[in-house]
Design goal:
about 230 residues, alpha/beta, six-stranded mixed sheet, two-stranded antiparallel sheet
């Protein structure tokens, strides 16, 4: 009999997290340390804003660096979105927002043959995140049931063709962005959602989901992920 832990996983056992610098708030430090303790067999990689610039210089071409640097620093979330796609494509593994965590060991919830994993919010009536991610553009125009695919955590193989498509889509969005271009575009948070964030991510996956092996789970908690570890609730 072959046990799951004896099977080599396609997903590299690497956890990626980012923060602007090394001065994490105490409560976030606790979350990070607990994440590491829960996954002692996983390599942990942390990137500051300075680390991100150096990483892009080492691993990508000048065009990618210029694209990253073209994002207004006011929109830090957009820079963070772009980097998570870059690092997951280049390295594979698991990206998790710094305030988020998993409640089960990653090796128990990620299957040996997983290549890309997608989940959605617990956003039904009366559920924990009621209404989250239910953008009309996704649910009505694209007809994606239950709304956006979450990208506060990402699970992907190295050189994933799915992540490559997401990355190419986002690069094109950044290069071609004009706030007035479409009636759903705007400045600020909404613009980020459409250009680099979960709406862009969801639309990209929706476009190619029938071409590649993607594991779809209804909820984040179905694969043991917790959006806000500071709340401590599933």
């Amino acid at each position: 009999m072959i046990y799951m832990e004896e099977l080599k996983m396609v997903i590299p056992k690497i956890i990626h997290q980012t923060y602007r610098d090394h001065n994490l708030p105490n409560e976030i430090t606790i979350v990070v340390e607990n994440l590491k303790k829960l996954n002692p067999d996983w390599e942990y990689r942390f990137y500051t804003d300075e680390d991100i610039i150096e990483y892009i210089k080492r691993n990508f071409n000048e065009e990618i660096l210029r694209t990253y640097q073209s994002i207004n620093p006011v929109y830090g979330a957009a820079k963070a979105d772009f980097f998570r796609y870059l690092v997951l494509y280049r390295e594979g593994g698991v990206y998790i927002d710094i305030k988020s965590t998993c409640i089960y060991p990653l090796s128990e919830v990620i299957k040996p043959d997983d290549r890309f994993v997608v989940t959605q919010w617990q956003n039904g009536i009366g559920q924990k995140n009621e209404g989250a991610g239910l953008f009309s553009y996704l649910t009505e125009e694209l007809e994606i049931k239950n709304g956006e695919y979450q990208q506060w955590f990402l699970i992907a193989e190295r050189n994933s063709p799915v992540m490559k498509y997401v990355l190419d889509t986002v690069i094109n969005n950044i290069k071609g962005y004009r706030a007035w271009k479409y009636n759903f575009y705007s400045y600020g948070k909404r613009g980020v959602l459409f250009v680099t964030g979960p709406i862009a991510y969801t639309k990209a996956i929706h476009n190619i989901q029938d071409k590649y092996l993607i594991r779809f789970e209804r909820y984040d908690i179905d694969v043991g992920f917790l959006y806000n570890a500071l709340e401590g609730k599933c």
